[in-house]
Write a structure and sequence with these properties.
The protein has 3 domains: about 5-195, 3-Layer(aba) Sandwich (Rossmann fold); about 230-285, SH3 type barrels (Roll), CATH 2.30.30; about 295-370, Translation factors (Elongation Factor Tu (Ef-tu), domain 3, Beta Barrel), CATH 2.40.30.10. Helix content is about 25%, strand content about 25%. The protein contains 8 helices and 16 strands. β13 (about 325-335) and β14 form a beta hairpin. It is globular.
Length: about 375
């Protein structure tokens, strides 16, 4: 129960359906080096308004609300890999690891400690079980697992709010115990339910949590400057076409592939970052849209269900960002490494981000872009 509208509506729905429920809110690591008066943005899940709302909803429903201190685990499992990735020259996505290890890892352990069967959250995604010998299998064309149900991860009904991209790392064991009551609802219906249940929020000013939660700013730039200052070294911004220097960057790890705001004035044609050369400390840019790629290498491949047969070419769709375009293509892989070849050219992508694989509306698996 973060205190947001989504988790508050879920609590009311489950209570109305007659479930015995226990609320859990956790405290996570926040940046001790942040300015002491830094504003906690409304888009952060840890803001005071959300915390207060979680308390009020729990009291209204007459349910216990546990506060679980996960600062140490969150720092170790989420923040440190984020910083280490930037040190190595990649742009990690910390939310995917957080879901696997913290939200659906540590919380399921806590559910066991409390004697709870299921973990329900306000995520927009769907989990559909298929019994052995039938159910969804013919529709989704996946190999059946013997000896019981298989759990399929699907996009939410409301594709504009879908969060399934961030959940591809969950295991079958985790999916078997998770409920997403909002997965088949539109966001407008969730707001209507919030009004129906009398959940307190201001329509005009309410904003959903959507930014990384462990620093107060909207982007990680200031956070990286605070924690990786020793790794920041100014260097040239050069054009890919002729190698001409057009400006100076403040440290290549502060920039992402595709970034257009470069702090370089006087350019008539919009430019974007297409490569970060750590050995020469150069930030390489090109005319927006000019540099395109045909394939991406990935590693650390994870499958939601049974792995697809290796050493074969599998026609799938892929996303490189949570709300980005789905691209047609084919995957070939061996062990936990693979190559996804796109049916048409796409923009360059940042190593460290995730390529998530789809078959229709089902999430098959994914891997880390190298």
């Amino acid at each position: 129960m973060s205190g947001g509208i989504d988790s508050s509506v879920v609590a009311h729905l489950l209570k109305e359906q007659g479930h015995d429920i226990i609320g859990v809110r956790f405290t996570l690591w926040t940046d001790p080096l942040a300015p002491p008066l830094a504003e906690i943005l409304p888009s952060k899940c840890c803001n005071a308004q959300n915390i207060s709302r979680a308390d009020r909803v729990a009291k209204r429903l007459g349910i216990p609300l546990h506060i679980l201190d996960l600062e140490e685990e969150f720092k170790r499992e989420v923040v440190d890999p984020f910083l280490n990735g930037h040190r190595k020259g990649v742009n990690p996505n910390p939310c995917i690891g957080c879901n696997r290890t913290i939200k659906f890892g540590r919380l399921l352990e806590f559910a066991d400690e409390l004697g709870c069967e299921k973990l329900a959250t306000g995520h927009y995604a769907q989990i559909l079980p298929s019994p052995s010998g039938g159910g969804l299998e013919p529709v989704l064309s996946l190999t059946k697992e013997r000896g019981g149900k298989k759990f399929h991860l699907l996009e939410a009904l409301d594709t504009s709010k879908d969060q399934s991209y961030f959940l591809y790392g969950l295991t079958q064991k985790q999916l078997s115990r998770v409920l997403f009551p909002l997965g088949n609802l539109l966001k407008s219906e969730v707001y209507a339910l919030a009004d129906y249940f009398g959940i307190p929020y201001e329509h005009a000013s309410y904003r959903e949590s959507q930014d990384l939660c462990f620093f107060p700013e909207k982007t990680p730039r200031a956070f990286l400057k605070r924690h990786l200052s020793n790794a920041l070294k100014p260097g040239p911004i050069v054009c890919k076409s002729d190698g001409k220097k057009i400006g100076t960057h403040q440290g290549v790890l502060l920039y992402a592939i595709g970034q257009r705001r470069l702090g370089v004035g006087g350019q008539r044609i919009p430019l974007e970052v297409v490569q970060k050369n750590y050995s020469s400390n150069k930030l390489i840019v090109d005319i927006k849209g000019k540099t395109q790629i045909k394939e991406l290498k990935i590693n650390s491949i994870r499958w939601v269900g049974s792995p697809l047969p290796s050493k074969l070419c599998h026609p799938l769709k892929a996303r490189t960002h949570s709300m980005g375009q789905k691209y047609e293509g084919k995957l070939e892989y061996r062990n936990d490494k693979g190559i996804f070849t796109f049916a048409s050219l796409i923009p360059p992508q940042s190593p460290g981000q995730h390529l998530v694989l789809y078959r229709g509306e089902e999430i098959v698996g994914g891997g880390v872009i190298t």
